């Protein structure tokens, strides 16, 4: 079963051909990073325009690299949400047009289900499986007891962790996109700056990062008022430590409480070197299998959408031609 998958929810125009939900025949990602860099963030209008300009070419390239034609395909899949509405619509319309013209079934996929299913491209799962989703717009603990069922255990009450990374990076004067830059800088510093760790109520699997973000800003500001300056690499290391402490600890607690057989860390921030190392250390001796996708499958791509679409295909879960882009699409299915 070969599925052509399309992803345009944010600032990557991506298409992939995935066999049986696990084998990557092609995975094309066109990043718009350079266009958004001078604005210091993703500009929705600019994103939609770029998607519209390149979607056809990216889809053709995915087929070409997979050495496949439309007649080899079993379905066309696309991210239907969440994401930027104008960006989503470009992918949804391209997928609908293709499915209609070639007489193929259409499959709408949830972007976060995609991030989670990215781990399927690497190895089989054991249930119950626990996913820590850490991305630009989401920070959640999701329990999967059986294939395609997602149970939300906890989520951020304010900023997503990727958002906090990007904002703190900007405060430190780092170039966009801030997450990877802050990660690099943190490696050279000491976590010597006193910053809070947001545990919230006992037993809660929710997260909060806006207090930490404000604490970084206040700490820098107060030092400047005294005519002092914290070393940016130490601020970065301290911020990263606070984030990683709470993410690893809450994931471990949830894994134990749910008797998870495996834990996954997914989404753009799963590319963070400190988080990857801390998770490995935490789960190494616990007997719980840990899966973190390789870097190029952590950030947005269409291979993960093809992996998630295969589950829908197996269940006969197809979308109709009135499929729409839904910016706030919920994960529960
Ligand atoms: P969502 O998936 O929630 O819809 P998104 O698709 O915009 O949001 P992703 O592409 O999954 O988000 O992830 C992008 C985020 O990951 C950005 O906030 C970016 O700064 C962050 N990120 C990427 N690499 C790293 C890293 N090495 N360390 C920390 N953050 C990182
Ligand atoms: Mg992106
Ligand atoms: Fe994403």
TrEMBL record:
This is tRNA N6-adenosine threonylcarbamoyltransferase. Substrate binds at residues 133-137, 166, 179, 183, 272. Its main location: cytoplasm. One of its GO terms (cellular component) is cytoplasm. Required for the formation of a threonylcarbamoyl group on adenosine at position 37 (t(6)A37) in tRNAs that read codons beginning with adenine. Is involved in the transfer of the threonylcarbamoyl moiety of threonylcarbamoyl-AMP (TC-AMP) to the N6 group of A37, together with TsaE and TsaB. TsaD likely plays a direct catalytic role in this reaction. Coiled coil: none annotated. The gene is tsaD. It is an enzyme of class 2 (transferase). GO terms for molecular function: iron ion binding; tRNA N(6)-L-threonylcarbamoyladenine synthase activity. Belongs to the KAE1 / TsaD family. Fe cation binds at residues 111, 115, 300. Its cofactor is Fe(2+). Its EC number is 2.3.1.234. It is found in: Cytoplasm. GO terms for biological process: tRNA threonylcarbamoyladenosine modification. It catalyses: L-threonylcarbamoyladenylate + adenosine(37) in tRNA = N(6)-L-threonylcarbamoyladenosine(37) in tRNA + AMP + H(+). Residues 23-306 form the Gcp-like domain.
